[in-house]
Amino acid sequence: MRRNRLLTSAAALSAAAALGLAVPHTAAAAPEHHCSYVSSGVRPTLTYGDTGAAVQQAQCLSNAWGGEPPQLTADGFYGTRTLKKIEWIQVCHGLPESGVIEGRTWQVLYHPALDCYAPYPS
Asked: How far apart are CA 15 and CA 22, in angstroms?
């Protein structure tokens, strides 16, 4: 029975990979954060165009994702690259793709899912 489950899972993953759907992007396995621009309790609502240390924190935390997503420079400016990455992270976690960093988005930035099978937009 276990062998059947493994074969079924392998077949599904192979089919998804052939369609370009299964390109996992991984996050750090442990929620160890080297980002220290603001305290982890500081979680203001951030939107496109915002600036400051909280934006730097979000940019730094978003870099826990490995693989294809670009690493962001923690420059403190919420621009187009940051917006695109935040929207992708929201999709990966089943959140509305708003680009607004608020409570639920901060939560997933501090505790990212280990894998995301949504392709990063080109």
From this structure: 9
Find all residues with CB under 8 Å of 3, minimum gap 6, and list them.
none
Residue 36, token pair as written in the block: 């220290």
Question: What's the pTM value of the predicted model, to 2 decimals?
Answer: 0.73
Strand 115-116 versus strand 25-26 pairing type? antiparallel
- Looking at residue 93, the DSSP 8-state letter turns out to be T
Residue where the block lists tokens 């929201």: 90
Q: What is the pLDDT of residues 59-97, one digit of tens each?
A: 999 988 766 678 899 999 999 999 999 999 999 999 999
End-to-end CA distance of the chain: 40
Structure tokens of 56?
């730097």
Q: What does the alpha-carbon distance between residue 106 and residue 11 come to, in Å, rounded to a whole number? A: 35
User: E strands, the chain, where?
Assistant: 25-26, 115-116
